[in-house]
Structures are given as structure tokens and as C-alpha cells.
Amino acid sequence: MADLSQKEWDRFEKPEHSHVYKQIATVMHKGISQEEVAQFYSKWADDLQYEKELPEDVYNAPIVTAAAAADGMTAEEKASVRVFDVAAGTGLCSLWLRSHGFQHIDGLDPSEGMLAKARAKNLYDRYICDFITDKRLDINDDTYDVLTVSAGLGEGHIPCCALYEMVRVVKPGGRIVIVTRAQHLETVEEYRDRLEPLMDRLEVEGKWQKLERKIFPGFFLDKEGILWKYQVC
Ligand SMILES: C[S@@+](CC[C@H](N)C(=O)[O-])C[C@H]1O[C@@H](n2cnc3c(N)ncnc32)[C@H](O)[C@@H]1O
């Protein structure tokens, strides 16, 4: 289940770090189904354990995602644009988006338990309990100015084909920010030699244009993150 050797386990400074690593390893194990993923997160959300176990010094994906979404936008733009937070979870990314001045944010997540925590904090205008895949969501074309995905990729998580649906619901000129663990590009079969080639193909087809791609530290403990930022054409 956990993709760690004993040597790697020994390196954790705090016992709670090995616990949260086990949680992540469980929800991202090879062969996990979409439904099992959603159920696992619903249990993890109980008593806000998910948030307690992933403080900023352990997990910075929502911070990095929101900062990249806000970068280059004026205060007026941020106050008026519509944002779609995909894989919203308990709403950590919405909290950071709001701190940057975004005010109109909808959220999608297949885990009812995770979304319930976001709902209790009134973090989204609309709550959509669903998976993003290649299936058409109940959202019109060109609805959003900004789409964010903070850590929604992994084993059994968002599939490559969902990129089409993301592009469809964002307006021309709007931006899409996707952040995940960098390691996933190699370890997750769904993404290996598929995710970035598809991103490139969408660019060649004139669907979007890459603004940024960067590797950053602190995504999750000592694991690096990768961020892509695209502008929809
Ligand atoms: C690590 S959590 C990230 C939550 C939040 N964005 C954050 O940064 O705290 C991953 C989330 O992805 C959601 N998820 C998994 N598969 C998904 C899919 N196909 N579509 C949308 N969300 C999905 C899970 O339910 C879970 O809430």
C-alpha cells in the first residue's frame, strides 16, 4: 500500500507525518476506484481531520494554486470574476483564493463529506458533488474566468480526459491553474507519458496556451509539486 521503504519511514521527524503519509498512500494506492477515493476522503474529512493533518508546513498546494490564479490580476478583476475550484475538498483553496480577493467561487468535488465541511464555512456559491471526467457537467460553455485544481490528481483521481471539460467551461482568455505532486507524472500510469503530451496537444490544437510550468518545494512534506498555468483560447 504505502510506497515507502523502512528507511524512508524512519526519516519522518514527527509521528503525525508518518500518519498523514499513510493516509495519502492509502487514498492514492494503485487500483483504487473513483468511488473508493470519494468515500475515503469523506471519512478523512470527519472532525476536520483532513485539515488538521495537512497544515501549511506539511502541504502547500492550495497556497501555491491560489497565488498563481491571482498573479497578474487587479483587485477589481479578482472581485468580479467567476472562479471554479475543481476537487474543492473542504475548501482550503477557496480560503486562499478569498484571501487574494476573489469573491465568486463555485466548487466541485465527488466527496460529500469533504464538501460538507466547505459548506459549513460558506466557502462556495455553488456546490457540485460530482467527479470531473469526460462527461459533460451541468455547466454552460465559457462560464468561468478562472479554474483551479489543487491536488486533485493522483491514482483514481482526476483522469487526463477531464482537461477537455475544464477547457470547455472556461471563457476564452480565462486561466486554468493545475497543481499536483510532481512524482505523479512518473508513478501514476494514467498520467505517465499521457498528461503532458495531452496538454501539449491541446496547445497545438489552439485550445489553450501555456503561461507557466514550474516545479516547487513543499507540496507535501519533502515531495515537490508541479504547477501548470494555461490561458484558454
Ligand atoms: C488531496 S484532496 C485536495 C482537496 C483541496 N483541493 C485541497 O487542496 O485541500 C483531493 C480531492 O480530489 C477530489 N477528487 C478525486 N477525484 C476527483 C474527480 N474525478 N473529480 C473531482 N475531484 C476529485 C477528492 O474527493 C478530494 O477532495
From TrEMBL:
CDD domains: AdoMet_MTases (cd02440). It holds the Pfam family Methyltransf_25. InterPro entries: Methyltransf_25, SAM-dependent_MTases_sf. Residues 83-174 form the Methyltransferase domain. This is Methyltransferase domain-containing protein. It comes from Dreissena polymorpha (Zebra mussel).
